[in-house]
Amino acid sequence: MDVSSRFDVAGFGVIVTGGASGLGLAYGEVLAAHGARVTLIDVDAGAVAAQASRLQSEGLDVRGAVADVTDHSALDRAIDEAAGAYGRLDVAFANAGIDPGVGFVGAWAGDALRYAGKVGAGFTGASLGDLHRRLSPLTREQSPFVDAPRARDVTWVQPRLVAQLAFTERTGDGRLRHPVFLGLREDKDPTDVVWTGPPSRAPASDLRPNIERARAPAPGAATRSAASRPSRSRRSRRPAPGP
Fold first, then answer.
1. What is the CA radius of gyration of the chain?
2. Same-domain pairing of 89 and 122
3. Residues 220 and 132 occupy one common structural domain
4. Is the residue at 35 inside a domain?
5. 134 and 41, same domain (yes or no)
6. CA dihedral for 210, 243, 120, 93, sign (positive or negative)
7. Does the CA dihedral 27-33-39-41 come out positive or negative?
8. For position 213, what pLDDT does the model report?
9. What phi and psi values does residue 190 have, to the nearest 5 degrees?
10. Which end of the chain is more exposed for a tag (fewer CB within 10 A), N or C?
11. What percent of the chain has pLDDT over 90?
12. Mean pLDDT, the chain, integer
């Protein structure tokens, strides 16, 4: 079978996010090899420039652009520039994403912020991008918790955001079981986030998650920094919840 005859993309205008490595690079290279005009978009300026240069040296119509997919204005500019250069845009391959890792949360006990668990569920692409933008300016060297969990590759942040969470149980040592991120509480001050009442367990007959009234623990540390911020393209970032 002549695969090329069934893969006619000659002249197509293409953009590929996360295009400096992995699947994004492979996809862009194959399309370019079959005649497409490809723009590789990536947050890593050095890597995308190097790959675009390599493919150009092989006679392929490839250009590179730098943008973080969580920065909508920068991404829009990169897309507009590609469409302007090609006079058309036929294919958009969204290969870059956000890896939130895990967000640590806690609640106040007097003047001490105590660890309450880690949250890795309930996030959407939009909420992760928003958290990344909010948390990036809040990074700090040390954990804000007085009883910080043992963890590697963690980016700590100031406890400034309040998250509302659903969970199935609060254990005797103050940990949350199966917490799910529901959103941020703009109407709450972080210092208002304190535990009220004893630990509770959801009845065995009730599978719905409990919500600790209006006071969910406030995130205390952000995600693992596989790419430093939750929101770095593909590798990243972080962006998971934190304070």
1. 22
2. no
3. yes
4. yes
5. no
6. positive
7. positive
8. 35
9. -55, -35
10. N
11. 51
12. 79
Task: From 46, 71, 94, give the residue that closes a domain.
Answer: 94
Q: Are 241 and 103 in contact (CB under 8 A)?
A: yes
| Ramachandran category for residue 195: left, alpha or beta (phi over 0 → left; psi -120 to 50 → alpha) | beta
- Contacts of residue 139, defined as CB under 8 A and 6 or more positions apart, other chains included, come to 155, 156, 157, 158, 222
Do 88 and 136 reside in the same domain of the chain?
A: no
Residue 186 has what pLDDT?
Answer: 93
Residue with tokens 């609640």: 107
Q: What CA–CA distance (Å, rounded) separates 195 from 117?
A: 13
**Which residues does the chain have with pLDDT short of 70?**
1-6, 97-101, 125, 196-243
pLDDT value of position 234: 37
Query: Which ranges constitute the DSSP H helices of the chain?
Result: 22-33, 45-57, 72-86, 125-135
d(C-alpha 158, C-alpha 123), whole Å: 20
Residue 238 in domain = no
pLDDT per position as a tens digit, 162-213: 999 999 988 888 899 999 999 999 999 999 998 766 554 444 333 333 333 3
Distance of CA 163 to the CA centre of its chain: 16
Residue 2, SS3 per DSSP:
coil
- Please, are residues 78 and 15 in contact by the beta-carbon 8 Å criterion? yes
Listing DSSP states for 52-71 in one string gives: HHHHHHTT--EEEEE--TT-
Distance, in Å, from the CA atom of 181 to the CA atom of 167, rounded to the nearest integer, reads 9
Report the distance separating Cα 223 and Cα 229, nearest Å: 8
